[in-house]
Amino acid sequence: MGRSHFSVAIRQRSTISLVQLRAGQIVGSTYLTVLHTGFLRKAGESEERITSVASWQDSPYFTGAERAALALVETVLQPSADGERVSGVLYAQAAEHYEPKALATLMFVIGQVNFFVPVALIAKPVPGRSFTAPWK
Q: How far separated are the first and last CA of the chain, in Å rounded?
């Protein structure tokens, strides 16, 4: 893997973890929030970036691509007054930052988050405890 591919892969993993952390915050899951905060710390993300995920809209710590990804996860997970969650405008903004394969990956990551949200909300796994241990 070339150096440029390696740095792109690292940024993609970081973006995925940021999206997963924001999802945990949105749905109010301590498990998901603690889990993905830990992943970001292990990956070497700064505390400023990690702690400002909740207020990413006015934070200076995120790239345009990361902002597009965070906007997508928010629109998917939060109800919309007009019924449309992901507008054509938002999709176009995301597509400006991601090549088709990367955008598809981002969509699948958000879909995967949606799979685990009910598990985290219903079963309430305990942060730091094995997933196979009793959850409550």
A: 43
- Confidence band for 116, pLDDT divided at 50, 70 and 90: confident
Cβ atoms of 96 and 7 closer than 8 Å: no
**Percent of the chain at pLDDT exceeding 70:** 87
Rg (CA), the chain: 15
d(CA 6, CA 12): 10
Q: Identify the residue with better confidence: 82 or 86.
A: 86
User: Measured over all CA atoms, what is the biggest interatomic distance in the chain, rounded to whole angstroms?
Assistant: 45
117: number of CA atoms within 13 Å, CB side? 20
Distance between CA atoms of 15 and 102, rounded to whole angstroms? 11
What is the model's pTM?
0.82
CA distance to 20, 36, 99, 129, per residue, from 29 (Å): 11, 11, 31, 15
Helices (H), the chain: 3-27, 30-42, 47-51, 64-77, 88-97, 100-123
Q: How far apart are CA 33 and CA 76, in angstroms?
A: 18
